[in-house]
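Hi, here's the filled form for the chain we discussed.

Project: internal
Contact: R.S.
Residues: 365
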Amino acid sequence: MGKICATIVTGFLGAGKTSLVERLVRRASKNSPEQRFALLINEFGVCGIDKEILQSCGLDGCARGEIVELANGCICCTVADDFLPAMEGILRRTPQPTHIVIETSGLALPKPLVKAFAWPDIENRVTVDGVIALADGLALASGGVVGDEQALQAQREADDALNHESPIEELFEEQIACADLVVLSKCDLLSADERARAEARLKPWLRKGVNVVGSSLDQPVPNELLLGLQSAAEHDLDSRYSHHDDGGEHEHDDFRTITLRFGEIENYANFHAGLEEAIAEHSLLRVNGFLAHKGKPMRECVQGVGLRLAKHFDKDLAETPATDASRASLLVVIAQNEQKNDDRASRDAVDAQLASQIRAKLRIN
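And the returned structure, exactly as it came back:
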């Protein structure tokens, strides 16, 4: 008997994960009654609404006994305690399912979950057929990544097991960069220009060969596109970029990460004008860092996605000596890799050149 296939469905609250899973199972139950689905739902809190919606479909393919709910927090943070025991329980069932569908919470980092499928107790019996990321078309077209940020933040605050505090933009990027297929939802509510704008937001984070398909209530994605991707994602981890790989220093063919360390900034206005110039000229995807400004008692926190920069002062440095390391500045930038080269020396030389060009724009040594 071959391995059981698993499909991981990820995306933020309101992007359409539950609707996609419900329709997938409903169609499969009607057209392929020999398929037996097991559903693992990473919903937490007192409602457990996703599980209730899926159970209400009333079809053999998603019977109550085949739905497992992980209600103890973000699935990527409770792999050993919750996910692996749940998987082992599913695999002990008779008859065994022919396909496992895992719906993550909007807070989950997909890559740690994919890694769990390489664990010896799972690897010999299950393979990840594909990671499907749901992206909210309306949110992307309007410049965001999630329709209701307050609801997502409430979900974050309710999860005591959450051990990563990734910014919302980073979570979005992780989901897209790990995907084998991206589903852009709510396309019926978008104009042609809005859809193009939404797809442009996705493009920098798509792995090579990964497609974006549109969906709406009237035009859901067919099962033929969702299943049978045969990605074996657990053996393809290196191609799936994560901000959390090796503390953010992970080498990736499609992206380069540059870390700049420097002292106090003399001129606030000139620095930020130079930063905007550097972002535009070098098409920088992300900017994150902490800045110490000469003569200012507070440390500045900077986070940027493209030309959208968020800045605030977060830490009082009034009592910190000027020579202390905490008065130093740190800036990490992520850029698209236009010159892919496997030679480490060549990569280092290109990175050094980009770092020098950015420093020149920022007027820092």
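Let me know if anything looks off before we file it.
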